[in-house]
UniProtKB/TrEMBL annotation:
Organism for this UniProt entry: Naganishia adeliensis
Protein name, per record: Uncharacterized protein
The organism's place on the tree of life at top rank: Eukaryota
Length: 460
């Protein structure tokens, strides 16, 4: 029998396992991961001239006390704060004057600050009803985001840092540390149910399916780090006797659908001294809000796009080995685009994006007819996540009773109906962090929290 079985080998699960084993070296800890790889929504591609993080990318708050930095320091993972690169804002294929672009950026920042301090007792109020609407709507789908609770969290604030060699370096170091301390990690193990044993005082039974068939493990405690979208789909089947309050928080907390597209070339045809391009939308949606979903290039023109270039030297000179520069562009895909990409290949989407970029970005060299290679991440259609991360509270979720306190509820233990009333299942993951939801910081923070809780509950 195990002391703790952890479901999920992403940052929350691996951090929790490490936390338990650091305190209780003799604890029996098993980490179960449904996928054939570690990391969850951390994914680093090596299909290009250097590693490209196509899942999580940044350590937020690196110089402001981030728990992720503490982890990288302990594990000896090298990080760097990128040089402040040159950027440009593009509208209608033309680069805006630097002063105009600067004013846009300042106005947006001021608009979001004003919105965060605006009091709105009505759950139906959105950012679209903010008096700052005209200065900020190009960056957000304002009608969806609740003004009532906008800006309460600390997520993504402070200095951003990158990991030398890709984010998955940290995942591997974490997993290696867990195994060195005696923990077990099993890949390809899909959990099918978690229930209390039939006899009084019996351990929790975890039923899984893997390449060898069906198997059941027994454990004193279970820690779930299952992504929120997957919980929304399957919590009733996975967990017996879940409380109504927890089920409500799971069902109505919103999950985003952001994606990333990476396109590479034989050489950079755009200016290699520019690190980021912001392309403003040039095609309005129809009068009823619809977008031209049958034409990808036209669809892309209806949303703002942020494009990052890997052709620029971003790391300070003292970072060794220096991250490679390569002719690659990474584009952040907002919700209106992502929700219409199901069934489309990375090649098709990459070609449509290339057609749009070729007429939008400034060119330093002749532009080729197509990209050399395209890679897409679309977590909304990934069966192991079904979504990106939790988002700012939406009007719809707030109308269902979701508040910042719901993130606390998402992280509360469950008893599974045990007669002694003691916790049997713990919950971690970015969606259980009040102040850092939607980030690796939130995932690591929750893993530390629940790892310590497990040690206390089991008196390890």
């Amino acid at each position: 029998m195990y002391d703790v079985v952890i479901i999920g080998a992403g940052f929350a699960g691996l951090t929790a396992a490490r936390t338990i084993l650091k305190t209780a070296s003799t604890a029996r800890v098993l980490v179960l991961e449904a996928q054939s790889r570690l990391g969850g929504r951390c994914l680093t591609s090596r299909d290009f001239g250097g590693p490209v993080d196509i899942g999580c990318s940044w350590i937020h708050g690196y110089k402001e006390g981030s728990v992720v930095r503490q982890l990288t320091d302990e594990l000896g993972v090298k990080c760097y704060v990128p040089n402040k690169g040159k950027g440009c804002v593009i509208s209608g294929g033309k680069t805006l004057d630097a002063d105009v672009a600067g004013k846009l950026s300042k106005n947006l920042s001021a608009a979001l600050t004003a919105a965060a301090s605006t009091s709105s007792p009505s759950p139906s109020s959105s950012l679209a009803s903010s008096p700052e609407r005209s200065r900020s709507e190009w960056a957000y789908n304002l009608e969806d985001v609740s003004l009532q609770w906008f800006g309460y969290e600390d997520s993504a604030k402070g200095t951003d840092a990158a990991i030398v060699g890709g984010y998955d370096k940290l995942v591997k170091k974490l997993a290696d540390d867990v195994k060195t301390m005696g923990g077990e990690i099993q890949l390809g193990a899909k959990v099918e149910s978690v229930k209390l044993g039939e006899k009084q005082g019996a351990p929790v039974e975890i039923s899984i399916a893997n390449a060898n068939g069906k198997q059941t493990y027994s454990s004193r405690l279970v820690l779930s780090t299952i992504p929120l979208s997957l919980l929304q789909k399957s919590h009733a089947q996975l967990f017996s006797n879940m409380s109504a309050r927890k089920a409500h928080a799971i069902d109505f907390t919103h999950v985003g659908k952001l994606g990333k597209l990476v396109v590479s070339y034989d050489e950079a045809w755009w200016p290699s001294d520019i690190g980021a391009f912001t392309i403003l939308p040039i095609e309005p949606t129809s009068s009823n809000g619809d977008v031209p979903t049958d034409d990808l290039e036209q669809l892309l023109k209806t949303v703002p796009l942020v494009v990052s270039s890997f052709a620029i030297k971003s790391a300070p000179a003292d970072v060794q080995p220096a991250p490679a520069t390569h002719p690659t562009l990474l584009i952040y895909l907002p919700v209106p685009v992502v929700q219409h990409l199901e069934g489309r290949s990375a090649t098709e989407i990459g070609q449509a994006m290339h057609a749009y970029l070729s007429t939008s970005l400034p060119s330093a060299k002749p532009c080729p007819s197509s990209p050399k290679h395209s890679v897409l991440t679309n977590w909304a259609y990934d069966p192991y996540s079904l979504g990106a991360t939790s988002t700012p509270l939406t009007v719809e979720s707030v109308s269902k009773g979701i508040t910042p306190a719901s993130f606390i509820e998402l992280g509360r233990p469950e008893t599974l109906g045990a007669a002694d009333g003691k916790p049997r299942v713990l919950f971690a993951g970015e969606h259980t962090s009040v102040n850092n939801r939607g980030s690796v910081t939130g995932a690591v923070e929750s893993g530390l929290r629940e790892g310590r809780r497990a040690v206390q509950l089991l008196n390890l």
